[in-house]
Amino acid sequence: MIERYQNVWARLLTYNDINYEVGYFSTLMNLAAAALGGIATCLMSIAGQPPLYSFLVGFAAFIAAQILAYVYLVLAAQSRAAKVEEILPDFLSLMASNIRSGLTPDKALIVSVQEEFGPLAVEIERAGKSSLTGKPINEVLVGIGDHIDSDALQKTIYIIVEGLRSGGDIAELLEKTAMDMRKSSSLRREVSSVILNYVLFIVAAISFGAPLLYGVSTFLVDIMLKIKQNMAVSAAGASSGSLSGQVGLFKGQLQLSSDAVSLFAVVSIVITVFFGCMAVGIMHSGKRLDGLKYFPIILTIALGILFAIRWALTQMLGSFIA
Questions:
Q1: Distance from CA of residue 37 to its chain's centroid?
Q2: How distant is the alpha carbon of residue 256 from its chain centre?
C-alpha cells in the first residue's frame, strides 16, 4: 500500500519535472496535511464541538489536503503536456527541415531546439545530452516522453522510432506527422466550438440555477419552521391550539433546524459544482480532472449567489419569519 502511494507521487513528480526524492516529498506532504488536520481539530474543539466531531473534521482536512495536492499536480502535468502537444508540430517540421538540409537525425534533434518550445525544449536538451554519450537515437527519442504525460507525444515518438527502424524517409515521415497533428488540433477546436453551448448551459446551471433554487427553497423552509415554532408556542397556552401540531405540514415533532437546512444546501451545491466541473472537463478536453481548475471560481460564485438570494429574500420578506 505504501509503495503504491509513493508510486503515485513519483509519477506526478516525474511528469512535472520536479526533482524531489519521492520519500522526502511524501513525508513532507503527510506532515503538512497532518498539521492542517491538527489545526482544524483544535479549532473545532475551541468552538465547543464534541471530540469525535472535532476528530472527524481534522481527518477530513488531512484527506482534503492530500486530494488538493494530487489534483494540483495532475492539472500541472496536463497543462505541461498540453503545451508540448501545441508546439510539437512546429518542432517536427523544423526537425524535418534540418534533416533535409543534410544533418543526421541526432544532430537535427539537437539543432531543432528553440527556447519558445518550453517543456519540450527541456526534454529535447536532456535527450540531446544522452545522444552525445553514444546512446542510440531510438532510445534517445523514447526518453523524450518519459517526463511528459502526453499520449500524442508517445504515439508520435513511436511512429518516428518505427520509421527509423524500417529505414524510411524520416524527413517525410516527420512532415506528414506534423500535418496530421495540425489537422487533429483543428478538428478538436471545431468540436469544442460545437459543444460550447452545452458547456455554457452546465456552467449556468451549477453557478446560478442551483443556488437560486436552493436559496428560495431554504428560505421557504425557514418560514415554515418559524410558523411551526410560533404555533407550538401558541398551543402551550390554549387547549384548542393543540390541533395546530396535528394538521397538514405542521403535523408531528419539529425535526429540522434552519442551520441544518442551510448546511444541506451548501453541501448540495458543493457536490453539484464538483461533478458539474468534471462534466465540463470531459466535454471540453476529454479529461475529468481538467474541469476541476474551474471549481474554486464557480463554487465561490455559486455560494455567493446562494447567500445573496437568502439575504435579499430576508430583507424583502423578513416580516414573515420575525
A1: 22
A2: 34
Buried b (16+ CB within 10 A) or exposed e, 108-122: bbbbbbeeebebbbb
pLDDT at 283 over 50: yes
Give the up-direction half-sphere exposure of residue 216: CA atoms within 13 A in the CB hemisphere.
5
- Distance set, CA 239 to CA 228, 233, 234, 242 (Å): 16, 12, 10, 6
SS3 81: helix
Residue 181 and residue 156 in contact, taking contact as beta carbons nearer than 8 Å: yes
Cell numbers 537525425 correspond to 105
User: pLDDT tens across 121-162, in order?
Assistant: 888 887 777 776 777 777 777 778 788 888 888 888 888 788
In the chain, where are the structural domains located? 2-80, 82-185, 195-321
Q: Cα–Cα distance between 148 and 199 in angstroms, integer?
A: 28
Long-range contacts of 149-153 (CB under 8 A, 24+ apart): 149/15, 149/77, 149/78, 149/80, 149/81, 150/81, 150/84, 150/85, 152/85, 152/88, 152/181, 153/81, 153/84, 153/85, 153/88
Contacts with 94 (C-beta within 8 Å, 6 or more apart), sequence order: 112, 114
Q: What secondary structure does DSSP assign to 53-70, as a single string?
A: HHHHHHHHHHHHHHHHHH
Does the pLDDT at position 245 exceed 50? no
Decide: helix, strand or coil at residue 253.
coil
For the record, the C-alpha cell of 302 comes out as 455559486
